[in-house]
Write a structure and sequence with these properties.
alpha/beta, 3 helices, 5 strands
């Protein structure tokens, strides 16, 4: 960079030195960048709180089945539960010495939203022996156990 040292006639230099101003501005810019909060891309969800497990729920030490019905019920080995009771029942099954297998089988016209909620509950419970059953009946598109309107199905 070129610097001017003034003239030789003894008059004072009339240009302002901007180097300290630029240094202060850069320090302030770095401080603002550091203090910006980190953007998180998380979606906060409210999970159901565990409630009392119904007395008639049977937790099998080998294999348990969660079925979602068309009318929005959650069945644990055939016993209807709500979401809070499902959380408590999962905790009870995971407290066994050997974790039992958990099978998940939604019915053909079960709610997708309910399926996503139940899968989220199962995932957050920490179950590791988990599997989907009954998918083989839907191997071909439109080949489910029931047909809503058989006249519209292509031959």
């Amino acid at each position: 960079m070129a610097m001017s040292g003034g003239s030789d006639d003894g008059s004072p230099m009339m240009e302002m030195n901007t180097t300290p101003l630029i240094d202060v501005m850069l320090v302030l810019l770095i401080m603002f960048i550091i203090t910006i909060p980190v953007a998180t891309h998380a979606v906060n969800i409210d999970l159901p709180a565990p409630s009392d497990v119904p007395q008639n729920v049977d937790v099998n030490p080998i294999k348990n089945k969660v079925v979602l019905t068309q009318d929005g019920q959650i069945l644990w080995n055939g016993t209807p539960l709500n979401e809070g009771q499902l959380v408590a029942t999962l905790q009870q099954s995971l407290a066994l010495p050997v974790e039992p297998e958990l099978q998940f089988q939604p019915e053909e016209f079960a709610s997708y939203d309910l399926s996503a909620q139940v899968l989220r509950i199962i995932k957050t419970s920490g179950a590791t022996k988990f599997g989907f059953v009954g998918n083989e009946q839907f191997r071909e598109f439109g080949a489910g156990p029931k047909d809503v309107n058989p006249t519209t199905r292509s031959q």
